[in-house]
Amino acid sequence: MERLEQKxxxxxxxxxxxxxxxxxxxxxxxARESRESQALFLCVACGHRAHADVNAAKNVRDxxxxxxxxxxxxxxxxxxxxxxxxxxxxxxx
Length: 93
Ligand SMILES: [Zn+2]
Fold this sequence. Notes:
By secondary structure, the chain is of the alpha+beta class. The protein is 20% helix and 6% strand. It is elongated.
């Protein structure tokens, strides 16, 4: 029996696997130290413990679903007019 695994193509999102494997799925705390071992994830912040792959997989799922990336707009204030600081004439002496 053939096993054709056709996972929806074209829906690929760029998610850095390093972060998902180091981010606590319970409290979203990101720390390398939480990665207790290759197989075990133990959050240094809240103590959440899970299989590292499971924890990472949940993070990937959450990231893909939520896509909660705050867009930081670069268009803020207009460029300040470059004005020469005028010395207070009263203080010149
Ligand atoms: Zn945690």
